[in-house]
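Quarterly update, task 2.4: manganese (II) ion-bound model.
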Amino acid sequence: MKDGESKYAYKKRTAWELFSKQQLTTAFSFAEGYKKFLDAAKTEREAVEVIADIAKKQKKKVIINQGKSAAIIIKGKKPLRDGLRIVISHIDSPRLDLKQVPLYQDSESHLALFETHYYGGIKKFQWVVIPLALHGVIVKKDGKKITFTLGEDDLDPVFSVPDLLPHLSHEIQDNKKIDEAIKGESLDIVIGSVPARGDFKEKIKVAILEKLHEEYDITEADFISAELEAVPAFKARDLGFDRSLIGAYGQDDRICAYAALEAILDVKNPEHTVLALFVDKEEIGSEGNASAQATSFLRSLIRDQDANVDIDGVLLTSKVISADVSSAVTPNYTDAFELKNASSLGNGVVMSKYTGHGGKYSANDASAEYIAEIRSLLDKAKVPWQTGELGKVDKGGGGTVAKYFSRLGMDVIDLGAPVLSMHSPYEVTSKVDLYASYLAYLGFFKS
Ligand code: MN
Ligand code: MN
């Protein structure tokens, strides 16, 4: 192999060595904007608003669907029938959702709690005994929407799921399998402990309801028409002596969403019409009207460009990057990975030919032809990149939005940053992988 051709390939050198000193400085300042984005966009609704705010500052229009998915589209020089260049990322993350009837008083422990149902694939033991913030909306019967955030300001109270002390957990938890030790139904959040004064039942619950009514105009029945999400109350922070990494909640997939947003905002006069799509509900199978499977939104975006265009024809010639994260090789657990085909932090953006599980079931399996195109594009744009897969064969797996878009006849490849401790309350990424993802999406939009 000629050096010029091969040096950007997997594991020859890390992105830290491939980037120039100037690029590393840029990558670090790029990460500052990303950390602010993470802190401001902890739910899909907030992400839509923050994306719209950032775009507005650069005089770019954002089209919003259901308040939970968003799109930025920029007309290209070529006609629409030559296809779009689409980067699709998701803006939902695993969390604890409140149930419709969440509030109760536990008389034995003298506490008021919220019932939750976890959203997305979590390891339940990671979500107890950490500070949680509540984010979301409550919609009153008359349609009035109350936007709710509590637990993010340093002066705000936080919430938490309690766990049993080690002294007592031997029989109840310690001898059980790790995924059975903490039950989904026990992930309830402590929200208060002061009883109301008077002679009636459930005094703590009553006191909480009084407070909610006074401060937020919420009644108990209003929870029925609410979407409240308990998310880790941590702020995005630099991680490591060298500040090379970022520790934060919700980086799957907001790292790709932010990189795609910044990339499309930096595209000037593209050849093809370019589209950055930000969707909801990826973590629960892309179901619902703001998800990647709700393709009427995509169709309406194309129709808005040209009412007479053959939309299916446009879809057939379009090319897509499914901008989603991949699993980074995890220290002390390297046995879970087949290391020749696994991605690592700091080695650049990860290209995954397929996802799925057991015999590539449920995978988008990108064609060799399309991968050759993307590989060539990444090398030309001097983007550090690597290949990746989600663990050893038959050891697990997962999916992205790629398969839903490939069904529309488009070429789709998964390309995104590697993440350590994925789906945990504190995911870890590398600043160079974030910047490499941005450069990859920018190069694709320019192609
Ligand atoms: Mn994801
Ligand atoms: Mn995920």
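Highlight for this quarter: Residues 15-93+249-446 form a domain with the Aminopeptidase fold (CATH 3.40.630.10).
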